[in-house]
Amino acid sequence: METCEIKKVNTAYFDDEVEEILSSLERTRCEFWNLDRASANFLNMLIKINNSKNVLEIGTSNGYSGIWILKALEETKGKLTTIEFWEKRQSIARKNFKICAPNVPLEPKIGSAIVVLQDLEEEINALKREKFDFVFIDANKKEYVEYFEIADRILKSGGIILADNILTHYEKTLPYVNMLFSDKNYQSQIIEMGAGMMISRKN
Ligand SMILES: C[S@@+](CC[C@H](N)C(=O)[O-])C[C@H]1O[C@@H](n2cnc3c(N)ncnc32)[C@H](O)[C@@H]1O
Question: Is 25 a domain residue?
């Protein structure tokens, strides 16, 4: 039988220093639960295609996906807010961010995602900050529904929510999937890439 040898990923090209950091993070990705390269490339492209400028990441870890987000934001001239409750991980991420995208505005938040999301919502309601136009969900799979309930209120119309681990953790993420698929205010699609991602666009 003939085998299909089509190359499936042609990622953005970064300079040697950035590539070196990405490659070293890829070697430890199972330990830090990072995205695979194809999913990270997709995330980077989505931000650029949507021209997103105000991105929220839930689940920083050591910053692998954050680097891909920041590289997209270099192009769209945007800003990243990223949440992690494990201080040590986020300090590794901050070092990586400083080397890979030193000029992109960054707001690292340490704490439980739901609490930080509530704080962000309060600031938005008090007109102290703008709504987000892109939310990447990649933290506690059992809390995806709660993340969405707040994310929905702090996301602009036309904004995107991308959630990871939809297929690898389908039992935990099923309530999230069902909620989005029954929400007429969102257009959603599950993508069989990496751990399985669900992309949802707010009407
Ligand atoms: C799957 S990893 C994130 C990987 C990262 N997005 C990447 O691809 O490089 C999930 C991260 O979320 C953090 N986390 C899990 N539950 C959390 C919560 N309730 N609040 C804040 N952070 C949480 C974990 O400590 C972990 O570092």
Answer: no
- 176 lies in some domain: yes
Q: Looking at residue 8, what is its pLDDT?
A: 61
Nearest to residue 93, comparing CAs of 25, 139, 15?
A: 25
Contact between residue 198 and residue 177 where contact means Cβ atoms under 8 Å apart: yes
- For 180, counting Cβ atoms within 10 Å of its Cβ (0-12 exposed, 13-18 middle, 19+ buried), the class is buried
Mutational pocket test of ligand 1: of 27, 30, 33, the residue with most ligand atoms within 8 Å of the beta carbon: 33
Residue 7 clears pLDDT 90, i.e. is over it: no
pLDDT in tens, 114-146: 999 999 999 999 999 999 999 999 999 999 999
pLDDT interval class at 13 (50, 70, 90): confident
Ligand 1 centroid to residue 141 C-alpha, Å: 9
Residues with CB under 6 A from ligand 1: 33-35, 59, 61, 64-65, 83-86, 89, 112-113, 138-140, 143
Report the CATH number that the domain containing residue 68 is assigned in CATH.
3.40.50.150
**Residue 74 predicted with pLDDT over 70:** yes
Instruction: Give distance in angstroms: CA of 195 to centre of ligand 1.
Output: 15
**Ligand 1, atom nearest to 59 Cα:** 12
The two three-digit tokens of residue 86, written as one number: 């494990």
